[in-house]
Specification:
Elements lengths: L4 E4 L4 E4 L8 H10 L2 H18 L6 H16 L15
Helix pairs in contact: 2-3
Family: Belongs to the Fe(2+)-trafficking protein family.
Keywords: Iron
Protein name: Probable Fe(2+)-trafficking protein
């Protein structure tokens, strides 16, 4: 099966890219071009932790803005996300 290869900004290596733009606007284009499927999957796990821990509502524009800022920091700036009740798994 053929898949789209990109240089993933998150992993700093070539990985399988998204099949289509999964986020709107210019940021969505950047994610499509620079973030692998695997990195996006990791973000979705972190996003779920954030939503649950901070009791965020995707209906609330301020909560969506906060999630977008956290997403940018996680995917492009190397900041990990921890919640008050979350302990990362150590391998």
């Amino acid at each position: 099966m053929m898949y789209r290869k990109i240089f993933c900004s998150f992993f700093k290596e070539e990985k399988e890219g998204q099949e289509f733009q999964i986020y709107p606007g210019e940021l969505g284009k950047r994610i499509f071009n620079e973030i692998s499927k695997e990195a996006w999957s990791r973000w979705l796990q972190k996003q779920t932790i954030l939503i649950n821990d901070r009791k965020l509502s995707l209906i609330n524009p301020n909560d969506r803005k906060l999630l977008e800022q956290e997403m940018i920091q996680f995917l492009f700036e190397g900041h990990d996300i921890y919640s008050s009740g979350y302990t990362p798994v150590r391998n």
